[in-house]
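Dear colleagues,

For the upcoming journal club I promised to circulate an example of a predicted protein-ligand complex. I picked one with calcium ion because it came up in last month's discussion. The inputs are reproduced below in full, followed by the predicted structure.
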Amino acid sequence: MAVRFIATLVLCLAWAGSALAQSSILVRTPTELQRAIRDAGAGDTIRLADGVWHDIQILFTGEGTPAQPITLTAETPGAVILSGQSNLRMAGAHLIVSNLVFKDGYSPTGEVVSFRQNSERRARDSRVTGLVIDGYSKPDRLEVDNWVAIYGRGNRVDHSHLANKTNAGTTLVVVRDPVQGLENDARIDHNYFGPRPVLGANGGETLRIGTSSDSRSNSRSVIEFNWFDRCDGEVEIISNKSGGNIYRGNVFFESRGTLTLRHGHGNLVEDNVFLGNGLDHTGGIRVINRDQTVRNNYLEGLDGEDFFSALSVLYGVPDGPINRYDPVANAVIANNTIIEAESVFLGAGADDERSAAPTDSRFVANLIVNATDSDLLHLGPDITGITISGNIQSPALAPGTPGGFEARTIGMSRNAHGLLVPEGLDGVGARRDLRPVSREETGVSWYSKDDRAATLDSGRVVQVQPGEGTLAAAVAAAGAGDRLNLAAGHYSVDRVLVLNRPLTVSGPSGGEARITFDRPTLFEIGRGAHLKLTHLTISGRDAPDSVGNAVIRTRAGAANYILIIEDSRVEDLTVNRDFDVFRAEKGTMADLLSLERVSVRSVSGMVIGADSETDDHGTYNAERVSVTDSTFRDISGPVVDLYRGGTDESTTGPNLVIADSTFERVGRAGSRPFSINLHGVQTASIVGNRFIDSGGVRFHRTVGTPTLTMAGNETVGTPELDTNLATVEAGL
Ligand code: CA
């Protein structure tokens, strides 16, 4: 009996001891982690050992209490890396995840961090803090995932660093449903949303709260004191799709898009700071639906127009379906300061479908300061439903400004927080003590917010001598940002040069570096690559006798890359038909394709083929295309074929400049007999060119209000412009 008692006592002590020890346990293997999660109780902390955890899919479940949550964290903040095919799901209550880093890989599923295990089991009253997700993007840029998905109720994501998402899908999304409660009270604060490059398609939202189907109910989420740093994905930096949310004290820095109140009623947008620094498509706040309040925001240097305006109030669809634009009613837009903006648009987006003007709304006590260009106010067909009063514009009003604006010269000075405040003016514009959250106050202190992506010409300079295989060997050995300096002579290449890093290949400024290649392609631009070619001569004479060769093409995953060709010659691409200089493959997108002082002759295909996105979903292959001071002779297809199909309104491109170039016997063959073929392009400037015995220019509008400028072009034996545009700008 006594022995049994003592044995029991020992067991009890051992249990108590292990319970104490378990309150903070360090785990070193996936098996240890799994066991620790299984055994964890309220108040316990599980720490992942420092190091790289490769291909680890964590399911963190448990029931903590408000006073005693269960915590999953790192041994050392910043020293636990989840890489490869990793992700994390949480389910239960009062769980905390902190200080984990996802990088060097991508989630195998539709989410990196999810506040649910499956459609039945969610997390509630839980928190993710100090999370870093950096560049953890799916390689196929049009494959959708959400990096952080908040399900459940009462959950919070704070002080996290989410940067460099290049594939489609939100960076952070709040998913609501009636089972968990539509009033889900998410809190999203002090996060650093780092650079998100242009997606070139819908689906590039940094933040989305809700979906259209449940949007006429309240989420009651609070989004405050976050930094949005160059979040350029698409027109909606934030896509609000629910009601009763608060957006407060956030900073939007050089972000090309707007905080869009896309669906849902009764949201509050206050104390936010938008800083565009004059970059194109930087925007502010877009108002749609009922009962929205936009007050005390500071908007400076925003260059966006139309849906990218500093402020826009939209027309709506009368009695429209839930996924369309509800009319604006009872909006209050008050005490905002708008400085050096390109556009404020009251009554934007009116068309056959969006025919309902704003009603019962007020635009009051706003301060607009534009030193030089006073003509920023744009008005829709009917704005009588907006009461405009007590606004001041400095120094002058544009002709046609409606009543409710007073012209007055206001002195402005920059305060300690870097914001311009008016001198001697009370009650108009944002409050004087508005303090933007600093970048340092967001994200985490132990992970740098500085850009680390390599750029062109940021690496070493390497000398290369002519010969067989010397160029291929140099490319294979090149590091990110390296520049290969080719001496004069002949370089023959017997393989496709696949690039995954920025690379410059430069010939001598005197003499000729001549490249020939005997594969269907010379350069292939992959994920992470940029390519600059300068002072080279490239001949296609040794390429194989097959259809569809290209000197340069993209491979899957190439996104936001730059291709520059300058001071170079490309010739003899005639061995078979459809031999292109450059071909963008489907699913890839360039930030910039640039030809400057380039001479191209004898080509059986196109020069720039960026026409692969034919699904008509608003996707396209190049954001900007620029051709200047160049000469094109005997090209079968167009010099530029640029395509964006469909009526999606999420994006800003493509944009094109062609200037001071000569087209001779270009674009006369095949199904598209044009020297320049532009379909769905948003801005095009074709200025100072000569077209001789060539196909004409085609410009076809698909969506938006594109602009085409044609000036100073000379044509001989070339058809007139073929366009469905009503007006073409004739001057710059
Ligand atoms: Ca969108």
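Two points we might discuss: Confidence is low (pLDDT under 50) at residues 1-22. The longest strand covers residues 559-573.

See you all on Thursday,
B. R.
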